[in-house]
Each structure stands twice: as structure tokens, then as C-alpha cells.
Amino acid sequence: MHKRLIGNLNTAVLLFDANLKLRYLNTAAEILLADSARHLVGVSAKELFKSSDPAFLKNLKHCVASVEPLIDYALKLHRVGHGIFVNFSITPLESENNLTEMLVELLPIDNRLRISQEEQLHAQQNTARLMVRGLAHEIKNPLGGLRGAAQLLDLELPNNELREYTKVIIDEADRLQSLVNRMLGSNELPNKQSLNIHEVLERVRWLVQSECGENIKIRSDYDPSIPELLGDKNQLIQAVLNIVRNAVQAISTHGNVTLKTRICRRVTIERQKYKLALRCEIIDDGEGISPEMLNKIFYPMVTGRAEGTGLGLSISQSLISQHQGVIECSSEKGRTVFALILPL
Description:
By secondary structure, the chain is α+β, with helices and mostly antiparallel strands. It has three domains: 2-109, Beta-Lactamase (2-Layer Sandwich), CATH 3.30.450.20; 113-184; 193-343, 2-Layer Sandwich (Heat Shock Protein 90). The protein has helices spanning 2-7, 27-33, 37-40, 45-48, 55-66, 109-156, 160-184, 197-212, 233-249, 291-294, 312-321, and strands at residues 12-17, 22-25, 70-79, 82-95, 98-108, 193-195, 216-221, 229-231, 255-269, 272-284, 326-332, 335-343. The strands form three sheets. A five-stranded antiparallel sheet has the order 2-1-5-4-3. α6 packs antiparallel against α7, α8 runs parallel beside α9 (233-249) and α9 packs antiparallel against α11 (312-321).
């Protein structure tokens, strides 16, 4: 009964013996350490924390010697690919005045920060989106009148050379109309059906690879065990396509874009908890995004390219939000990752 309760906790729990060999870890700890209990049980604390903050091992040894509980904060825990910061709690367990086991709890700080940042970003994006939609509506009405007047004028002009000017007005009005429609976004609710996310990604990969030529490779790294999800295929294609095209444009002449899928467990998206979620990463090895731009890239009309409209990422975020998901971004020179997280 106790084991089942600990196994279902959201806090990562590890149990070491008096020799600091790992005897047990719950599901949350497996997720945090990105490895299974089958591989980790029996491993020493020295081996488990060898690439992490030295304070992990130092604290454990101190607790073995003193047989007293200890708490430490913001220690960097290494796991495959990157590190995360955790709060670290140790409770010695005794039997007949002899130390038998060490109960260790790890609480990721990153999760709290991510949820807080996610909520703040979501609120800011909603405000910006409402402002842009209001502005777009104000532009749309006089634009229609301007185009209509140009068409009437075109019919009255006897000179074909003068009609060239009205044609420019009509064409530019149409271009602005198209831009305004994109700013307003789709009013259609997603037509959700059961689908394979890899069909969506392969469609995007084929489209973009045919556009960018052989100097840029669009690679795939898929987890074939991912179950089908409920979604609008066309909307998901559009959301991923916008991001992959941006990734290609971030690469100067030669480079790689990787589409990667993995399963995430016990994910919180906008304070809603899900047992399973899909994490789809679009990774490029381009120049990266500047820290000043990183917090603004999902706002409408914000772009780092002179020829860009700044609507692609905003539209993608909106489409993924309609699927109860979220898009996260991290970037450094040579590695930019856009992660689409969708509940399964």
C-alpha cells in the first residue's frame, strides 16, 4: 500500500541503503532522471550523481555520518542532454538506533518556473492577440471601401495607362486584406479526429525539404510507440510548418533541422495535469535567437527578419492552444529547440 502511494507521488523519491546504493525509486524519479528503475536500482549514489553538483554526494555522506535530516536548494542535477535545478531533501531512516536507509526527495525548480512563465506568457499573448484583432478589424472596413472605390474608378477611366495605377491600388489592397485575415487568424474550431502525429511531421518534412534543397537536411527522430492523438490534421500541419520554415530560415547555407518525438509523463499544461503528453521538438543548428527576442517571438508582428511578417509563430501558438497544448522555446548558438507539448 505504501509503495503504491509513493509510486504515484509527483515528487521524485529515491531510497538508498546505508552504503548509498539505490534500492528503490518511484515513477516521478524515473521521469526526472530519464532512466528506468531496471537500469538504476543497485547503482551507487557516486555513480548516479557523478556529473551533477558535488553537493549531492557530499550531503548524502554527511547524513550518513550525522544521521540527521538535511535540505539543500537549487542543486544542478545532470541528466541525458541537459541539466535541471532541484531542491534536495534527505531523511535518514533508523531501525533500533542503526541507520538502515536514506530517503531522498528531489523537487525540480524548473517545473515551477516553467508553469509560472507559461501562465504569464499566455496572458501577455492573449492581450496582444486581442489588441491585434481589434486593430485588424478597424483596418478591414476602410480597406474594403478603398478597394471598391478603386474598382469603380477603373471602370470609368478611358486610358489603359491610368488603369495601371488603379490596378496597383487593388493589388495592394488585396495584399493588405490577406495580411489582415492572417492577423485575425482562423475562426474555425478544430475538427479533431484520431491521427498519427508522424503523418503530420512527415508531410511537413517532405514539403519543407522540397523547398530548401539539398544543403539543408530535414531529419527525423521519432518514437514509434507514441499512440494516436485527437487533433485537427490541417491545423497541426500548419502549426508545425510555420516553425519548421522558420528553422530553415535560421540556417544560413548548410545545416540540419531535426523533427523529434518523445512521450512525457505527468505533464502540467496551464495548471491542468495530464498522465501522458507528446513532446514534439523542432531542432535547428542555426545562429540561434537572441535573449531579448526570445520572450517576444510568439507576439504578433514581432520578427527578427526584415522580410518576415511576425505572424507565423503567433498563429502556431494559437493553433496548438486550441489543442490544449503549448509551445516552448530554448535557444543558444548552434541549437534552437521549439517544443510542441500536446496532451494524449
